[in-house]
Amino acid sequence: MNRRVVVTGMGVVSPIGNDVASFRESLLSGRHGIGPITQFDTTGYKATLGAEVKDFNPKDYMENADIVRSDPNAHFAIAAACQAVEQSGIIGTLPPERISVYFGTGIGGIQTFTAEMDKLRSKGPRRVSPYFIPMMIANMASGMIAIRFNCQGAALPAVTACASGSNAIGEALRAIRHGYCDAAIAGGGEASISECGVAGFINMQALSVASDPDAASLPFDSRRGGFVIGEGSGALVLEEYEHAIARGATIYGEVCGYGSTCDAHHITAPHPEGLGAINAMKATLGEAGYTPDDKLYINAHGTGTPLNDVAETKAIKAVLGLEKAKETPISSTKSMTGHMLGAAGAVEAIACLMALNDGILPPTVGLYSPDPECDLDYVPLTARKAEIDLALSNSLGFGGHNACLAFRKL
After folding, report:
1. How far apart are CA 259 and CA 242, in angstroms?
2. pLDDT at 30 over 90
3. Could you tell me if 199 and 78 lie in one domain?
4. Would you please indicate which residues are annotated as catalytic (active-site) residues?
């Protein structure tokens, strides 16, 4: 089997909007969601800015009993999945065993881990929550989504750091394409803005220490100094094409390519020439049937770290050739959302689908001083009208994990 796979539902919880419509409006207006971290006291922390989810109430999606025995990572994931499932109308159109869940996270329940370790040390082992383990483990969001919608196919997490959301979507694509299921809820979630999480990223020198929210997340800019930690979730409903057509579903685009590689180079730094990213993009474009005549857009990983942005630029040039790379619009929506870690790839996949359907490319905000080594068209500052045929989304994670997805307009 090599069946076609389409997207029939989308859901978002993000620093710039808690549904698809508000997320889209923020992207196209170039409005970022970065500000002082409010979830804990940042006194003594070098990095004090984050891209937090705002005005989110898990009670809009979950019963209180489920809320108190699950981590915020799962709250975001279930909310995004509920939105995507409602939009798609997929439930009830297939036997439960033909619907799977592939949902990623980079870190899982780190807020729960931090809180329960505090209890253990201050109050002793008897005060640790009996729900500590299920609240913390990385597969729980996928499990809870499956329970919520009675999805009895595979329910698996992808745990590949910043590539988790994209890997989850890609593995769901393969499962449907090769007949293991007919539909899947796929995406990623993250809720890592915690004392421990932020301190860890600071001490590995990954985070921006800027104090100005407007000049903190600066992909491809010469002033960049690290990423801004974000949180939230993105979810897609992927569905076999013929089934979607037969039931009259709205189709937002085809998932037409996926590449997954490893740099096999370093636990955090990308390969300096972007070799793993090159191989992932080549595999994806090959599956997508890309030709130089395609009007291509790339949603870059674009973290705003000194090493990533140069390596990714080199990779794009190597894959497309210098002339095509120069004329291809590229943007990093992390300039607005911050780096949502395991949720990033899923949210950025949605940004790609929006670009295909709207004919408007999201900008890289804050890009006033381009790095000379980052010399491509990064759609600086403001959104741009552009009809595209094919959108590529790059996700490059710690551990050398690379995932690339391609979406085509039908």
Report:
1. 24
2. yes
3. yes
4. 162, 301, 339
